[in-house]
Here is the input.
Amino acid sequence: MTKKQKKTLRRILLAAVLAVCAALLTHFVPLPWYLALAAWLVPYFTIGYDVLRKALLGIKNGEVFDENFLMAVATVGAMALGEYGEGVAVMLFYQIGELFQSYAVGKSRRSITELMDIRPDSANLQTADGEIKTVSPEEVHIGDVIVIRPGEKVPLDGVVQSGESTLNTAALTGESKPRRVGPGDGIISGCVNADGLLYVRVSKPYGESTVAKILELVENSSLKKAKVENFITKFARWYTPAVCYAALALALVPPLAGMAGLLPAAWPAGWGVWISRALTFLVISCPCALVISIPLTFFGGIGGASRAGILVKGGNYLEALAHTGVAVFDKTGTLTRGVFTVTAVAPAPGVTENELGEAAALAESFSGHPIAKSLWERWGAGLDRARAADARETAGQGVCTQVDGAAVLAGNARLMEAHGIACTPAEAAGTVVYVAKGGRYLGSIAIGDEPKPTAKDAIAGLKGQGVRTVMLTGDAEAAAAPVAAALGVDEMHAGLLPADKVAQVERLLAAKGDKQNLAFVGDGINDAPVLMRADVGIAMGALGSDAAIEAADVVLMDDDPAKLCRAMRIARKCMAIVWQNIIFALGIKALFLLLGALGIANMWWAVFADVGVMVLAVLNATRMLAAQK
Ligand code: ADP
Ligand code: MG
Here is the structure.
């Protein structure tokens, strides 16, 4: 509890004791009315002075209709009518409700930041004279060397200079997948250094490091509100004044009608009865339950998801995710591991395997595509990158690079076609890279990729949730069809250029129902246009890929496609809780308003309808947090 909450708690306890004293006093000692009132005013002001002050301030500032106003009018009215006990009780329970709510909100905020415990406190900077100085991460510059001891968090992104260690990524991805790193490896802030001592050359200032980006994203996520959230805000703005006027009408109309002889004989005609009912009405109507519990639910959903390594950029995306009807996947790097290994090499007559491999590896040396990496892995050792220059990559086709002064093409059949090079169609299974140098065909390299271990379950899980699954790929039909069949996707389209992927997504968007959303899942490599076009763009394997974090609405920190099912489950649960709260709160309120107007529900019922409903709604909202532990 914070200091302020403790103070409120003490006030509540004090007021409760004073109220009991007042009740005993007025019950056992016959007091004139003004002394009884005075006895009750002591607990009343003890517990309610701040609400009364806020209500007066609201009136002064022209923002009359809020819950402070409702409570102030209702309780002052009750006191004026001589219902002292009720007046004090309403204030008391209202404050208990407020305390509970601020405690619950504070607790969920804390637990999220704690569990997303990635913010580094300090960095150990190596100074020019070799000493180690502890500084705040903001003070470290690009090119500085920092020392990371075992057990410490990596404070900034960088490249290992010396030392070897295992990094634990659990805080970022929600799963602990230890990763071995050594000299030359890039490392990402937010991981925990498990065992070795690392010297790291910083490659990004703190503000641009992974940790800072993720924290910013999570903190800003409450700004993007879901439709229901906006609806409730608007609703409350309109609803509170409406209820106030309704209460006024309830207080005035029946007695006036009674004076005019228009009231049915069975109804009471006195002013006191109707004013009292109107005040009850005000207490019941307080919209706090919704105004508080709905954002809290989204907050819990977003927080819970981020703990599982799923960053959702706003409540609106959580809402959209819950209504996903079509899930479209990119193949390479998304459903397949994106780690290719060379499976067959077919040089053209008169070309050696090495010539072919070297040309391909050098041509690909600037590319970040998984295919490029695999070729470099196989032939890159000992090659001088300086031999390659002026690389141009055509998304969905391949690269064209000057190697030793001649243009080398490496890519699929489409690329060869575009440059008018005749190639021998390779029969090998998997993805085929054709290579040509200076207009001469050098041969082909077949590389294999395999589905991720969880991909099949992920597709099955989505189908189980009634989601249609589609796979889009720029790879050739021959390489893509076996993957699609093995995973069991509903629909597959191969040989697509990035623009074709957009066209396919457009088509799927048009074909699906209005109520359903389309989610696109990609690895962030050359699929930014589709990520933007989809209702929900989801980038996976975002660890270290800034482009993916920027372009997507939902970011899966690791590259596990099963996280999509998890994200959807969280989203659906969140929406279920939101609607439970809306229906429950409005239903109870409507019922009690009716009972209040008819004089069946008194102030004591009103307190339950207000504070009780709020507490239950908040408790229901906090389920969203508990579920993710
Ligand atoms: P996917 O749609 O499966 O993610 P991409 O759009 O990244 O695949 O690439 C589609 C195809 O384009 C690849 O299968 C490959 O044939 C070719 N290609 C793309 N980039 C490269 C590259 N750097 N080197 C060789 N071929 C490439
Ligand atoms: Mg791709």
Observations:
- The CA atoms of residues 421 and 441 lie 7 Å apart.
- The first helix runs from residue 3 to 28.
